[in-house]
């Protein structure tokens, strides 16, 4: 049996257990080793933070002095929110439906920031780094064993919210920047529309929204025998049994995301894609659900979508 089918079978079993998120965390920590933050992973998130800032401030240069932000998906390591704080964000709200923060992982993350600051590497990744913010992070990091993760992040103006971001409870016109990193590929289209409606409600005029979306088959990194386009071979009915019930992948394609954003009143200002080779797509017998898509849309495996709130929803 291919490794990816073993993994999805384990996920299906875990999904039936009480406290399934706890068991999934243990599986990732002890078996797949996917929760360990290596230097390469830390640097990739720092680079993402720089990219969010560059794209955002290019469209909203007036926010250079300070800005508010909302993150969709706090995840295991809040690298980007801390990076945004260090570069001038005044308030950041980070939403996740699961409480994934842990003291030990946050300690690892803060130690990376401190180490990269000591060796002079951090400003290379974050050119807008503010020395006074770094000084505050050093003071806060010293309390990592006495404060809860949420309390510690609050000292950095990062407010962790374990709730559905379709109801942020934030005041209207209070947010300059919305962002996510490898989250939307797990969010169904109907829920995305509701998220964007809430973001419109709390967005300041001309707010910017930036998403990095990973459209690859989510098992291709786990099982190297798979191509990033493997998930396009299966019908919706088959995929319901093959996909992970813990983190179900929607399989939306780039054209779907474009339509959802435009329908929600966001204009796409920049789209940067990476695509699989044409031969890879040609070797796949597409499921009926994907046969009407343009080949160039099906080949997209990652995208950065930079959008701006510019119009009322028609």
Q: Short summary of the structure?
A:
The protein has 314 residues and is α/β, with parallel strands linked by helices. Helices cover 42% and strands 18% of the residues. The longest helix is centred in the N-terminal third of the chain and has 21 residues, at 39-59.
Q: Would you kindly provide a written description of the structure presented here, covering whatever features stand out?
A:
The protein has 314 residues and is of the alpha/beta class. It is 42% helix and 18% strand. The protein contains 13 helices and seven strands. Strands 3-2-1-4-5-7-6 form a seven-stranded mixed β-sheet. The protein is globular. The model has no long low-confidence stretch (mean pLDDT 91).
Numbering strands along the chain, what is their spatial order in the largest sheet?
A: 3-2-1-4-5-7-6
Strand content: 15-25%
Q: How would you classify the helix and strand content by structural class?
A: alpha/beta
Specify the overall morphology.
globular
Detail the poorly predicted runs.
none
> How many angstroms does the end-to-end distance come to?
50 Å
Give average pLDDT, whole number: 91
Characterize the main sheet. 7 strands, mixed
Number of strands: 7
Report the C-alpha radius of gyration, rounded: 20 Å
